[in-house]
Structures are given as C-alpha cells and as structure tokens.
Write a structure and sequence with these properties.
about 475 residues, Alkaline Phosphatase, subunit A, Gyrase A, domain 2, 3 domains, four-stranded antiparallel sheet, 13 helices, binds zinc ion, glycoprotein, membrane
Length: about 475
Amino acid sequence: MTSKPLSVSFTIVILTLSTTFSLQSDQQKVLLVSFDGFRWDYLYKVPTPHFHDLLTHGVHVKQVTNIFITKTYPNHYTLVTGLFAENHGIVANDMFDPVLNKSFSLDHMNIYDSEFWEEAIPIWITNQKAGHATGSAMWPGADVKIHKSFPTHYMPYNESVSFEERVAKIIEWFTSEEPINLGLLYWEDPDDMGHQLGPDNPLMGPVISDIDRKLGYLIQRLKEAKLWDVVNLIVTSDHGMTQCSKERVIELDQYLDRDHYTLIDQSPVAAILPKEGKLDEVYEALADAHPNLTVYKKEEIPERWHYKYNKRIQPVVAVADEGWYILQNKSDEFLLGNHGYDNALAEMHPIFLAHGPAFRKNFTKEAMNSTDLYPLLCHLLNITALPHNGSLSNVQDLLSSAVPKAIAYTQSTTLLGGDHLGELGQEESYPYFLGVSLGCIIVIVFFVIFIKHLIHSQLPALQDMQAEITQPLLQA
Ligand SMILES: [Zn+2]
C-alpha cells in the first residue's frame, strides 16, 4: 500500500471525528420561562423596557399559534412535548377519562394522577436519560410523577412562593457542582389578573409593568451569577386573553335539561358528556341554540384543531365565539377575561422572545407554532427528540450562525390517531446515529489498513534483523 491512500484514509477519519464532535459540542444551557397568560401584544400596552431589551438583543416571534384548546395545562404540556392535545392527553384543565373512570381538575388541584400525563414523555425525562439534569420552578405538571420520574430538581407547586424565591432556585441549580442544562420557570401572572380585570381594563397596565420588572430581576440575577452570556433564555407563555362581558353569556340551562348530561369542562369550550341514549337529543337541543355557539359531535370537530382522537375529548363539544362565555346558569362564576377559544384567534396567542449564545440578535420572525419549541429545545440540549408535531426547520432561522446547524427535517403535521404517533420526530437522531456509525466503521477500517501497512513496511527490516542475529551464530 502506498502512502497516498493512507493519508486519504487519515483525512477522512479526522473529518468524520470532527463532524461527530462538533455535533456533540452543540449542547447549550436553556432557561424556559412562562409568564402565564402573557398575550403577544401586551408588550406594547405599556413601556416594557426589559422585554424590549430582549427583543433588541435577541429574537422575537410575533405570532405563535398555540394549541387548541388555548388553556393552561394543555399548552404547557405542548411546550415540553411538542404534541397536540389529542396526542399528549392533557386535553383540558378539567377532564374525564371514561376508561380510567377518573376526573382531572385544575380548580381542585386534582392533577397529580400520573395516568393522565403518561400518554407523552416530557422533555425533562428525555434530558435526564441523556445524562443531563433539569430543574423546574413550578412548571405546570413538573411536580407530577410521570413514567416513574420527576425532574432532577423541582419545587412542589405552591402559588404563595414568590418569583424571587423561584429565580433563586433556578440560579442555584444552574451554578451547582452538577449543574442543570435545562431550567423551567413558571409565574402565574398576568393570567390571574387578566381573568379578574379583563385584558382591556387600564389596570392591566401596572400588572404588565410588574411582569417587566420581574423579567428585569431575572436578567439581573443571571448577570450576577455570570450566566447571562451562557444561558439561552426563552420567554414565552401558554395563551393570551380576551375581554368578556356579562352581556355575552350563553346559558346552557336555557337549552338543556341537566338530567341529560354531565358538564365536564365549561367555558369557552363546553365538554359535554350526554347521559346514556341522550347523545342526539343533547346535540340537537344545542345545535341551533345560540348564534355565538358552535356545537360539534366529536367526529365533526375540525381537523385543524387536532382535537378529536382522544378518549378524554367528550362526545359533544360546544365552542363559544371570541369574548362569549358559556355558563350553565348566570349565577355561576363569571370572569371578565378568558381564554381557551379557537387557536387561530390572535388574542389567544402568547409572547415569544429568546436571547443567548444560540440565538440571533435583533431578529424578528412573523410566525411559528408552539409545537416547534420542543424540537428547538431538543436541538439546543443535543438530545434526541421523541415523536412530536412540531418542526425544527420552521424555527431554525432563529439560531445564530455560530451554532452548527443540525440537519433539520420538515415535520408532517398530519392528524394523528391519539394512541398512534406514527413516525414523526426523531430529527437529528438518525443522521447523528449514521454519523457516529460511519465514523466508527471508518476508524476500524483505517486502523486495519494502517496496521497492515506497518507490518508490510517493517517486514524487510525484520528480515535484515533476523539475518544479523543469525549470522554471528553461523560464524560461531
Ligand atoms: Zn394559563
């Protein structure tokens, strides 16, 4: 063997190894923050200097299409799984599972039954299986045991714990001896005040200013801990908020006999479980009942909502028009602001900003889907994404050129059967596996060739040496 093929093999080995290791070095630290109910345009209601700082020095997506229904638990689970509600199984804040014969209710904090969460695997489990650590400061659902696992560090949900205490925990986990690479931070406002006041109320101004101050506090603490330049901070939310009015109430008692159904979830998407044999009667009684109410049998629910193929979606679903409120009786609790409506409505859309070494500077993007965040997070953390409904290629332009671009495959967002995820996802995993395998094969082949070459080139010298050793013996 001549030295030319040898040097070619050597170059290929170096190139393969460097590609493999450059993919591995693509790992970043990520802090995902959710300010519950922060509508995309709250940014412009009052001066929000800290949000605008992020916007100028990072990336901003104007319209994020979240998932239907635009409620808290379904959307927070989407952010960490990349799945539509029908696929991750958290289809509402209030649910009934007819197979488990169990209820789930945010109102009563009856949410800790693992079985409700186990149709999906949240990102912290995948992150930890890859050998990393995660920390959650009150992220919805992250204090539930899911597939026998919790985040490496987590705070059990307690709404009385201050924002500052939550931030302190996040900083502690990022700077510990075995630091986390993924932090999740949740804060209840401006959702709480948005419900009470309504988003159009001028008193929402101070509420938004307060959230801006909280963001400023977080940035300050990250800077003091020397994390600001190394952590990729993503600030988003689960949904927006729309103004309601007592003039826009749809009262179910006017159209339905309470003995004929159970109301599982109320407004603005009423989940109705008719009593046995009453399905058609309930459906027909509601179908033309009110001009601002659209009623679907489960199988008629529009495909674009990806809200059909799950046993927890009830046989009849009634959806109110934006700003309309569904109550059984007008004496029931009414809120001036609400969300949960059609996810095509801009007022339901959340904010999305990001800043850090992986992101471009001063870059604005028109639109993305909230399901796209999950593959983006997996890419940043250099972990293999599980099957999901998002697409890394939709959001890859948010990343700075300094970050080696992983190979992105456009995902099909075809409607999936609830329990049959098909073969979505696996972005990066296949090319990565292929790269590593090829690298190993080339290394083995190279060494075999190298050793053979070495033996051949050393053979004449060995023969000479043997001749030198044997000659004196012969002479003797
Ligand atoms: Zn919420």
